[in-house]
Write a structure and sequence with these properties.
4 helices, alpha+beta
Length: 136
Amino acid sequence: MSNFRYSICEPANPKIIEQGKIDAAAIVTIFDTFPWKQYLEETERLKEVYFSPSIQFENLSNKNGITVSAIGKPDKYEFYIFYKRPKTKKTWFGLSSKLDHNYMSELWNQNENQTTEILKALADNNLSFLEEKFSR
């Protein structure tokens, strides 16, 4: 199994909090137990919000990563998902190409089941599924 690192962003904290290394099997559990509703309630009370509540997982071997952020009200929220990976981009009207090590794509309006499916794909290193999902 691949080793991952993960970090979190809290609404009231201006710094990203590194949580260390985890095994791929822990990714979905961390997502399921993350206090999304509590952080969204806190966001409504804050005068200054630094981040939407977020968690990020990165595969240490290939640098592919997923960031999940919650947006909305504590009783009704959705997830925005960002997928970072190396990707070759065409330049000069397709005559040249360049590797972008931090290419980013996003999906909006995702529910808990859709997000879990994407996180499972990251944990399983199912890169073809992720590429298809984020290239629509």
